Amino acid sequence: IGELAAFMQEDVKRMLAYSSIGQMGLILIAFSLASQNIQNALIAAFFLIISHASAKSSLFLLSRSPSMGGAACKYTGIVGVLSIIGMPPLAGFWGKWYLMLAAINEKLWLVIMLVFFAGIVEAGYFARYLHKSMGNESKLNLRYKVAMVVMVSFTVLLGLLPIAYKMASLPLWGW
């Protein structure tokens, strides 16, 4: 419901707020699956919470500017949106990946379809957001730009963590 409400919004801050409601729904689904499949569900909740906190906070800061000009603003907007919609290898992807694994283990096909549907709706309204926002130089001051870049970079670093962990656990040259 939060994703559909976000899709209907023209105001950026309202869209982000309703999107947050949709993200909280995913986090609640992850916690509800924790009693049956604790490992995947808690990992999903962790990644969803961190991704939402870092990416959405930076997008809210970015919403203070009417346009997304300049490298810092474009980086923040694109990476923040991609993490929220669950594109690999960002933290939002891992949250949705582990949520799907937990739902698959419990054979909750309706949950899987809802997560896919929510992702498609998210991609739709965030594509519209990016299309409208790209433009002239942003009027944000340097401290906002630094804060946005640092927060959204956290979702990139956290997204690379599972890849680094898997690579570190693989034996080198067959040893």
Question: How would you characterize this protein structure?
Answer:
It contains 7 helices and no strands. With 175 residues, it is mostly helical. Helix 1 packs antiparallel against helix 2. The longest helix has 28 residues.
What's a concise summary of this model?
The protein has 175 residues and is mostly helical. It is built from seven helices and no strands.
**What is the number of helices?**
7
- The total beta strand count reads 0
Please bin the fraction of helical residues: over 70%
Mean pLDDT: 86
Rg for CA atoms: 17 Å
Largest sheet, in brief, is:
none
β-sheet strand percentage = under 5%
- Give the H and E element order: HHHHHHH
Write the layout of secondary structure elements.
Blueprint: H1 2-8, H2 12-32, H3 38-62, H4 71-85, H5 91-105, H6 109-133, H7 142-169
Keywords, please?
single chain, 175 residues, mainly alpha, 7 helices
